[in-house]
Amino acid sequence: MTGAALGPPGYAAGDAVRVALTWPPGHRRIPQYIRGKAGVIERYCGSFRNPEELAYGFDGLPERHLYRVRFRQAEVWDGYDGHPEDTIDLEIQEHWLSPTEGDA
Amino acid sequence: MTGDTHDHGHDHGDGPVLTYADDSVHDRNETGHFELLTDALKELSIEKGLVTATEVREYVEFFDSRGTEKGAEIIAKAWTDPAYKERLLADGTAAAAELDIPMAGAELVVVENTDDVHNVIVCTLCSCYPRTILGLPPDWYKSKSYRSRTVNEPRSVLKEFGTELPDGVALRVHDSNADMRYLVLPKRPAGTEDWPEERLRELVTRDSMIGVAPARDPA
Predict the structure, then answer these.
(1) Residues of chain A with C-beta less than 8 angstroms from the C-beta of B180
(2) ipTM of the predicted structure?
(3) In this predicted structure, what is the pLDDT of residue B39?
(4) Helix (H/G/I), strand (E/B), else coil: B128
(5) In terms of domains, do B133 and B58 share one?
């Protein structure tokens, strides 16, 4: 299963993004707790074969851009009672992200 | 097996008889679902010529032989060599390679503890861990309770490890959910200013590099 060649990364450190709120079947490496949450790109990690394809024996190509996205814990969990600056970082593939501009 | 062909309808001595069932608690479950699956995959891969039995054995031997020494080497060097620390934080994979430490296909991200920030690592999906640097992960790192609670009540989890963060220190949790592997650069303990790198390594523990504890106190 191959698609278009990989273009340049769509986001850079500091960009505000939101993780897709969706529950597709299959092997996904985006934990459920972070779906639909908004964060900020911490760094671009490079491009890697797509684990959603690799899991089923495909070649995982084209590669997907991967980012570390930083989320504020208080926005991820209802009632989080730690320090207001506490954060959680996850690695998110570009096709799970959209810009938060234009968010309702 | 030779020379032991007599009938086993009798007891061999006065000591307790160790039956297979008694001893199996110390052993892996060789007939469990995943154990059988693993063995079948291994045999098929060898049969198809994808790997050799020697390669599998060497791979297992390599990972079983890894401890936390490589991690301690990295951290002690970063504590004593500011230029290395800068390279380590910018590109962990390349900085590890400088010390001939491989990453086995993943990328290394090093996160630094400071007076204002504490970092802790978890893999909520499975047990991703920088195995070439720290060896095999501890059992608790793979437990469901560590994996689930570290993301939503990390301060309580740290407290259970004896690590109470002072007010004003922000906590950064890193979920190792894809292609990066993480190493915490702990704070260099006070009172070690004139210590050489080799001695500093002794203060760098596994848990301090996962972020559930500080480095060992030299006092």
Answers:
(1) 45, 68, 91
(2) 0.93
(3) 92
(4) coil
(5) no
